[in-house]
């Protein structure tokens, strides 16, 4: 399953800062915009996996099922501020 999320990028000196407004706590940084994007996608995937595990905690095994799907983040390209 692939989900699309918004990625906001800001340039701060030599670093790119990225965050996803749809997912609180999903933020990242990188020396390049691509590095920041990859790091943000990983952060989103980890947050969603953690939320899924929290949701499943305490459910009987027969209610969970044998197939586990993990979301893969796909980020749209948006920039904020003066980033190139």
From TrEMBL:
Top-rank taxon: Bacteria
InterPro entries in the cross-refs: TA_system_antitoxin, TTHA1013/TTHA0281-like
Q: Which residues form the signal peptide?
A: none
- UniProt-recorded name of the protein: HicB-like antitoxin of toxin-antitoxin system domain-containing protein
Organism for this UniProt entry: Nitrosococcus oceani (strain ATCC 19707 / BCRC 17464 / JCM 30415 / NCIMB 11848 / C-107)
């Amino acid at each position: 399953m692939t989900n699309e999320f918004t990625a906001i990028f800001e340039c701060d000196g030599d670093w790119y800062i990225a965050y996803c407004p749809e997912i609180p706590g999903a933020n990242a940084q990188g020396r390049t915009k691509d590095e920041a994007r990859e790091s943000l996608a990983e952060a989103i995937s980890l947050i969603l996996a953690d939320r899924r595990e929290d949701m499943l905690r305490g459910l009987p095994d027969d209610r969970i099922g044998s197939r586990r799907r993990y979301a893969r983040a796909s980020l749209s390209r948006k920039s904020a501020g003066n980033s190139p």
